[in-house]
Structures are given as structure tokens and as C-alpha cells.
Write a structure and sequence with these properties.
mainly alpha
Length: 151
């Protein structure tokens, strides 16, 4: 058996790939073994006696399927968690999300005329002060106190 490692090495340099990705035609081993110079190897590459193998990669289909499940709320049980609740979603992020939804709600009520500007300002400050735990608590307060017009 003839050693073709010099030709393989030259071909890998020319094709700009690793030597494990160089394919040599088993029928043309004699031609390949006679190729001594880079020019000879270049001619063999042109004749497709020496070719590039396609790069192998990991399939992402399983990852995508698992991600779709996680997006639906599955695969998030106790055994899958590494960080604390605060590490997974910081308190501040939770607070910001909550406050933004409440501010959006009172802004829409003010713009539609259900809430006066004065009440809007007061509620805005109360939201900032943490008076309401969430949007539903805010709406309950508005209904109980009769601040909503036309409802």
C-alpha cells in the first residue's frame, strides 16, 4: 500500500480544509501516488480525483423540538432548574414588566376618556409606589372606588 499522506496534506492546504475531509478516488490511487508537486495535486483536484468532503455538523432538530416544548411551558420543572427564582427572572425585571403593564392600562383608560388626567397622575404615582400588586388589583381598585367613567 502506497502512502498518500503528503498528497493528502498538500490537497488539504490547497482546499483550505482539514486532512480528514480530503477524499481521494480509490480507483485513481496510482495517479495520486505519482503526484509529487503541488501542481500535480492541483491538476488532480481539477479532474475531481481529489475532492472536498462535506463538513459534518450536529442536527438541531432535537433542540428545536425541545425549545418548542419549553416555549409552551413544559420541561421547566424542579429537576430542570439550576438557578434560584430570582436568578432565572430577577425581581427588578418582574417589577418592570408589572409596572409597564399597569402604566399602559391607565394610559389607555386616560386616552379613551374613562379616566381623568388628575386621577391618572395620582394612580401613576401609586403604581410607582407599589400600592398595586398587579394589573387586576389596579382594575379592581378602580371599579371599587368608582374612578372609571362610563363603566
Amino acid at each position: 500500500m502506497v502512502t498518500l499522506s503528503p498528497q493528502k496534506r498538500m490537497a488539504s492546504k490547497m482546499l483550505k480544509i482539514g486532512s480528514s475531509r480530503v477524499w481521494m478516488d480509490p480507483k485513481s490511487i496510482d495517479d495520486i501516488s505519482e503526484a509529487v508537486t503541488r501542481e500535480d495535486v492541483r491538476k488532480l483536484i481539477k479532474r475531481n480525483v481529489i475532492q472536498k468532503k462535506t463538513a459534518k455538523s450536529n442536527s438541531r432538530s432535537r433542540f428545536r423540538a425541545a425549545k418548542a416544548q419549553r416555549d409552551k411551558g413544559r420541561r421547566k420543572g424542579q429537576g430542570s432548574r439550576k438557578g434560584t427564582r430570582n436568578a432565572r427572572e430577577p425581581r427588578k425585571d418582574r417589577w418592570v414588566k408589572n409596572v409597564r403593564s399597569m402604566r399602559k392600562a391607565i394610559r389607555e383608560m386616560r386616552d379613551s376618556g374613562k379616566l381623568s388626567k388628575k386621577d391618572y397622575r395620582k394612580l401613576y404615582s401609586q403604581i410607582k409606589g407599589g400600592v398595586f400588586h398587579n394589573k387586576s388589583a389596579l382594575i379592581t381598585h378602580l371599579k371599587d372606588s368608582g374612578l372609571l367613567k362610563g363603566d
